[in-house]
Amino acid sequence: MGIMKKRILFIHGLEGSPKGTKVIKLREQGFEVVAEDMFMSIMDLKRRNSVIRNLLRLKEPWLVLALIIGFLAVSVMEGWATTSNSLWFALCAILMSRLWVKLRAKEMAAQAMRNSFDACVAIQADAVRAAKPDVVVGSSWGGAVAVKLLADGAWHGPTILLAPAAGSVSRRTMRDDFEATIQTLNEKCQDIPVVIFHDPSDDVVPFADSELMAAKTNIELKSVDAGGHRLLGLLDDNRLADEIRRLTA
Residue 1: pLDDT band by 50, 70, 90 thresholds? Predict the structure, then answer.
């Protein structure tokens, strides 16, 4: 009888996909890898959970645009937009737009990212139930999703976090719940093996966030020289494969 392959649920990064380098290499190294597409991106309109798609789904920006267009339309119908006044009304419309951007655009972007993140978590929660993996591996944005699965109790097994962006996501969504999430992990993950791999030279996700998670929980932080944020060095020399085998032995 052949040896059963360890089944990994791999959660890809912000601009990643199920066909990324890490998934390919892990399969080459003898693992069964389940990788669900989260259809995630910042600006790619073709990705249904992208931040830009969720921003366009919000009602407020369209309402503001309608009000500005309505203001200009009324000025024309009432005869206000004469040659002498046309520049004045155009300037008012620009100022209204700029005021809204200053007061509300940041919150709107955060709300769109919250919707994107929640959609990704829902996809991976379904994947956990369907795949029944031996271990979850989350990379960057996918690491933040894996942290959320652990905190919610949707997953309670061995987990490897590759430069997890939980702190960055907390700040960019304006939820500011990173400390609370860490406390929840400390309560729920006492008997769950969780390991973080993070390269201190990472210029995308702060290494300090991983240090904070490790300091306040029983999560093990492995500081590695592995090529910066993408951590591809872990796959080139089998360090990630060895850790997966250790956690699932």
Answer: very low
- With beta carbons less than 8 A apart as the criterion, state whether 182 and 197 touch: no
Measured CA to CA, the distance from residue 138 to residue 242 in angstroms comes to 16
Reported confidence tier of residue 88, pLDDT bands at 50, 70, 90: low
When the pLDDT of each residue in the chain is averaged and rounded to a whole number, the result is 89
**What's 45's DSSP letter?**
T
> Quick count: other Cβ atoms within 10 Å of Cβ 196?
25
DSSP 5: P
Stretch (H or E) spanning 146: helix 141-152
Please count the other Cβ atoms lying within 10 Å of the Cβ belonging to residue 124.
25
Q: How far apart are CA 247 and CA 13, in angstroms?
A: 22
The 10s digit of each residue's pLDDT in 76-87 is: 555 555 555 666
Residue 58, burial from CB neighbour count under 10 angstroms (0-12, 13-18, 19+): middle
DSSP readout, 104-138? IIHHHHHHHHHHHHHHHHHHHHHHHHHH--SEEEE
Q: How many helices (H) and strands (E) does the chain have?
A: 11, 6
Tokens of 227: 């090529």
Query: Which residue is associated with the tokens 């789904």?
Result: 57
Tell me if 145 sits within 8 A of 229, measured CB to CB: no
Q: Write the pLDDT tens digit of every residue in 155-173.
A: 999 999 999 999 999 999 9
Cα 33 to the center of its chain, rounded Å: 20
- Mean per-residue pLDDT for 126-145? 98
Residue 196's closest CA among 134, 146, 156? 146
